[in-house]
């Protein structure tokens, strides 16, 4: 990397992006192009000669921006809000600039330690129970997406139960959720090898708030026990994508506990709001959960990707995910002095992506959840 070149081009790139934000409202929010449009605009093979940054940026303006759907436009109301902020953007710059890969503590100690600290800060802001903090057996980790977070905890739960029930019991494991639950759960079941017939999608209570009714869960669990199956994983919701349904966590948690099931709470969509005291009630009962996730890239003005996961028992996760080949061994890990986040996720390598989050968190005390009414006032 040539520092002076970076300085010159970096300033021009920031100008380009700042100008994009200045004019973002002039674009049609949804891209108007037809499938395959870019094939007609770009050559068949990579260019033989380099082009100037100006030429590249001109191409971006003329060929790429028409094919962009402008998620950061104030007129974007599709799917879910995924708004960034200047702090989030600067954090991403820092992360990209340092470009370290902190898969284990020794690979970049600050990466691991900052992540632990920031996840503890956020756990406290959410008023999560102490068991989710890093000082005991619990702790938080940044996953790329909620789908990864759910898969990670499902595999941890699966392996935990199979250690006692035996590997052959995989076909007996049963997962429970309401029909409002995100398809990320179904995907996790597919990857974790849960038999499709053992995924109980229980009808939500459409007469009130689309929440999962505890009686329905109790009945389903009893039926499965009678049939010789093993209930092992319950996914509760705080803010489903389609209906913002909030399940009664405390009651569900009680049922999960009495049946030795792992209770996960998916708050990917709405969990961020619970930092505000007036919304905290929606995660009441989270103390009964084994794990909890929310997407910082949704309501916390942090760039995609950034999904936060807290677990009460980090060892359940690391037992399922750790692999220690010779070339990764080091004294700090062997002495059990450190967290190695490679053992809390699917991939080995990981970004120093939480800079974005930590920068944002420094000003989070006065956080106002963006709503239709106030979003124009939030800087
Ligand atoms: C409640 C809920 N769960 C899970 C997901 C999946 O999130 P991700 O795209 O981060 O995997 C979403 C995303 O829309 C969601 O709203």
From TrEMBL:
Which top-level group of life is the source organism from?
Eukaryota
Instruction: Provide GO CC annotations from the record.
Output: cytoplasm
- What keywords is this UniProt entry annotated with? Decarboxylase, Lyase, Pyridoxal phosphate
Q: Which cofactor does it need?
A: pyridoxal 5'-phosphate
- Gene3D superfamilies per record: dopa decarboxylase, N-terminal domain, Type I PLP-dependent aspartate aminotransferase-like (Major domain)
Q: Name one GO biological process term.
A: carboxylic acid metabolic process
Looking at the keywords, is Lyase present? yes
Instruction: Name the Pfam families on file.
Output: Pyridoxal_deC
InterPro entries (UniProt xref): Aromatic_deC (IPR010977), PyrdxlP-dep_de-COase (IPR002129), PyrdxlP-dep_Trfase (IPR015424), PyrdxlP-dep_Trfase_major (IPR015421), Pyridoxal-P_BS (IPR021115)
Specify the signal sequence span.
Answer: none
Query: Of which family is this protein a member?
Result: Belongs to the group II decarboxylase family.
Name-wise, this protein is BnaA09g52950D protein
Specify the species: Brassica napus
The gene name reads: BnaA09g52950D
């Amino acid at each position: 990397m040539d520092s002076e070149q970076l300085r010159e081009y970096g300033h021009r790139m920031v100008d380009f992006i700042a100008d994009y934000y200045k004019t973002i409202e002039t674009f049609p929010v949804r891209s108007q192009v037809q499938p395959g449009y870019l094939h007609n605009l770009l050559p068949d093979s990579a260019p033989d000669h380099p082009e100037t940054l100006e030429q590249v940026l001109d191409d971006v303006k003329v060929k790429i921006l028409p094919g962009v759907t402008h998620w950061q436009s104030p007129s974007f109301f599709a799917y879910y809000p995924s708004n960034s902020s200047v702090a989030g953007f600067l954090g991403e710059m820092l992360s990209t600039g340092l470009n370290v890969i902190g898969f284990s503590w020794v690979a970049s100690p600050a990466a691991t330690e900052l992540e632990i600290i920031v996840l503890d800060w956020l756990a406290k802001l959410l008023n999560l129970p102490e068991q989710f903090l890093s000082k005991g057996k619990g702790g938080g980790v940044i996953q790329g997406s909620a789908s990864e977070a759910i898969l990670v905890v499902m595999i941890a739960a699966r392996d935990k139960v199979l250690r006692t029930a035996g590997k052959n019991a995989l076909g007996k494991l049963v997962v429970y959720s309401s029909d409002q639950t995100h398809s990320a759960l179904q995907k996790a079941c597919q990857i974790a090898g849960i038999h499709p017939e053992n995924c109980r999608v229980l009808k939500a209570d459409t007469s009130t708030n689309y929440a999962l009714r505890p009686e329905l869960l109790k009945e389903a669990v009893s039926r499965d026990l009678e049939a010789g199956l093993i209930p092992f994983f319950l996914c509760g919701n705080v803010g489903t994508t389609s209906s913002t349904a909030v399940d009664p966590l405390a009651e569900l948690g009680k049922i999960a506990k009495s049946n030795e099931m792992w209770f996960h709470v998916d708050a990917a969509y709405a969990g961020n709001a619970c930092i505000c005291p007036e919304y905290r009630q929606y995660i009441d009962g989270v103390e009964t959960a084994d794990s909890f996730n929310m997407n910082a890239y949704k309501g916390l003005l942090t760039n995609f990707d950034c999904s936060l996961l807290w677990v009460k028992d980090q060892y359940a996760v690391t037992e399922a995910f750790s692999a220690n080949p010779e070339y990764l061994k080091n004294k700090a890990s062997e002495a059990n002095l450190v967290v190695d986040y490679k053992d809390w996720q699917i991939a080995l390598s990981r970004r120093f992506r939480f800079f974005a989050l930590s920068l944002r968190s420094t000003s989070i005390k006065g956080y106002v959840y963006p709503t239709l009414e106030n979003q124009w006032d939030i800087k």
